[in-house]
Amino acid sequence: MDIRLAEPDDATALSALRRAVYSYSVMSPASARHMITVRTPGEKCLQLVAVADDEVVGWGATGLNTWTSEPGHAWVAIYVHPGHRRQGIGGALSDRVHEHLGGIGAQRARIFADADAVDFAVRHGYEASRQMHYAGADPRNLPEQPSTPADIRLAGLDEVDPRQAYTADTIASLDEPGDAPMDAVSYEDWLKDVWEAPGLDKGLSVAAMAGDEMVAFTAVETDVDRAWAGMTGTVPAYRGRGLAKLVKSVALRRCAAAGITGAYTSNDDSNGPMLAINNWLGYRRIATQTGLVRPL
């Protein structure tokens, strides 16, 4: 087994690895390549792959959270192919990742772990802080679409200006549940990381417009016949009107018309309103991960 820096040509193998580890994950090879190659310098990111018999069997990555105003927050991601676990691969990736964190000014690291990996994280100094639920739905079987309010116009993200989308996204994200506030997202970073991401299907993603203002939206990422609902949000002044339910319902219908047969999403356990919307849409829980943090 060899651990080395991830390369753009690892994208196809990484996409396959992620699907083997997380059956509900939606990451195309193009999205994996984008993740490897498009990083913000301030993240001071390290991305590693574990290779056994010329096969990518593990992933380990870390970097600073540059989307928050609170200094020192870092993220960690480590996963290993089910057929190659309990061989020391995860531990070896963890050692490299945490050694890197010690040299980039990180003060607190966050990781998400499946139920069978929580003990591993705890042994490495992490403490549970929250839960993230993953759910799937068949977009071909949906409840009746809600009506569109008279003052609202629906549009695909391919019909809007990225500045409109950035403004809505960053405002709606301010109270997104998490271990650090998302309150320092620059337009340039957002444009590269979100708007220009190859997995984002702007034609299937839906925005609710009030005049020239985007007031609610849902962003859809795709990989062949599967879709991932990334961020869904409503700006505070328009909450309580059912707009998140509306845009998600319309987006799922667009997915079904495009040949998507499986739609997936995730929600923090504390996000009751969005969990209720997804339950109404027919999403059923597939897995739960524990979010854990470690002081450094």
TrEMBL record:
Organism: Kribbella amoyensis
Molecular function terms from GO: acyltransferase activity, transferring groups other than amino-acyl groups
Superkingdom in the source lineage: Bacteria
Record domain N-acetyltransferase: where: 1-143, 158-296
CDD domains: NAT_SF
Keywords in alphabetical order: Acyltransferase, Transferase
Stretches assigned to coiled coil: none
Protein name stated in the entry: Putative N-acetyltransferase YhbS
Record's keyword annotation contains Acyltransferase: yes
